[in-house]
Design brief:
The complex is a heterodimer. By secondary structure, chain A is mostly beta strands. Chain A is built from no helices and 12 strands. Classes of the chains: A mainly beta, B mainly beta.
Chain lengths: ~110, ~120
């Protein structure tokens, strides 16, 4: 069975410092992996996705993520945090084989001035 | 390009009452999803349609929840009767196709409070 685990429910970083949001997945087949962001009172928006092409994926707003099959991880990073990055981030796994879609529980990112 | 539309945005009902939510996906999107997002949790897929057929409804509480997408475009999600634990945000999303790598586009959600 597939699953996705976001290792931190809350992450706090200072503005201008790097961001790391961790995601591990479990899947028997080749997964597609996504990161979505949810700002308060706004809809979910796709940040980036991995679909078996390049393992380093660049997304919007300076975010990127690296698919590491050996570690079953898809961590989200950004070199320098901005106040506008404060939001909830969801890691999502989708199996190409049977199209099951599973969201992680989310990581709330706090940006300190 | 217009996004996914949902209505109403907010709804307050008493337990045992009925409620219905409406979703209009992005034009041309074949796949439509309904999610339930309880406060502090990630979205949980309730039902997935491909055109007007159901692909996955394994997590839909069928004794009280129902959904339809009659003409393969708009969709409605109904709860009858509602329980306190149904208080959540109900999200609708759509994508071009059903393949696992497809990007989902989300609507703003309907926030339901059951008293």
């Amino acid at each position: 069975a597939q699953s996705v685990t976001q290792l931190d429910s809350h992450v706090s970083v200072s503005e201008g410092t790097p961001v790391l949001l961790r995601c591990n997945y479990s899947s028997s087949y080749s997964p597609s992996l996504f990161w979505y962001v949810q700002h308060p009172n706004k809809g979910l928006q796709l940040l980036l996705k991995y679909t078996s092409a390049a393992t380093l994926v660049k997304g919007i707003n300076g975010f990127e993520a690296e698919f590491k099959k050996s570690e079953t991880s898809f961590h989200l990073t950004k070199p320098s945090a901005h106040m506008s990055d404060a939001a909830e981030y969801f890691c999502v796994v989708s199996l190409n084989r049977d199209d099951k879609i599973i969201f992680g529980k989310g990581t709330r990112l706090h940006i300190l001035p | 390009e217009a996004g996914v539309a949902q209505s109403p945005r907010y709804k307050i009902i008493e337990k045992r009452q009925s409620v219905a939510f409406w979703c209009n996906p992005i034009s041309g999107h074949a796949t439509l999803y309904w999610y339930q997002q309880i406060l502090g949790q990630g979205p949980k897929l309730l039902i997935q349609f491909q055109n007007n057929g159901v692909v996955d409804d394994s997590q839909l509480p069928k004794d009280r929840f129902s959904a339809e997408r009659l003409k393969g475009v708009d969709s409605t999600l109904k709860i009858q009767p509602a329980k306190l634990e149904d208080s959540a945000v109900y999200l609708c999303a759509s994508s071009w196709d059903i393949a696992g790598g497809e990007t989902q586009y989300f609507g703003p959600g309907t926030r339901l409070l059951v008293l």
